[in-house]
Design a protein that fits this description.
Layout: E1 7-16, E2 22-25, E3 32-35, H1 43-49, E4 57-62, E5 76-80, E6 95-100, E7 103-113, E8 116-120, E9 130-141, H2 144-149
Antiparallel strand pairs: 1-2, 1-3, 1-9, 4-9, 5-8, 6-7, 7-8
Length: 153
Amino acid sequence: MQIDQNTVVSIHYTLTNSEGNVMDSSVGQEPLAYLHGASNIIPGLENALTGKAAGDTLAVTVDPEQGYGEVREEMIQAVERSNFAGVDEIEVGMQFMAQTPWGEQPVTVVGIEGDSVTLDGNHPLAGQTLKFDVEVVEVRSATEEEVTAGSPQ
């Protein structure tokens, strides 16, 4: 069976950045299962997998536009430390959920200067070219429940 709309696909993958550093991998773990066509994975990877079958392997390079997007400067802003009531210590790299004009989303502390804390709401992989080495493990038709839920069950 080939990967197409409304198929449940299981893959093993290794994700590296443009410098070759491993960012994530499913190797040695359960494969990643997703519902093809339901935006469960980034568009560039999903498009490359269309038409593949169990046993296929592929190397995919995904530009930011088809990955996590470009870095959006408007999603980086400084806020007062007083916005972190109940948090005793704030350090660069910490993540929080924040209410933003785009809804609730995770933000990462990228800078601290005096009473000002700079937060970045971009995805940590925004602006990066990503390289995936993928092995298709299994492809099957999705159940009606999975299609309704938008993900494998």
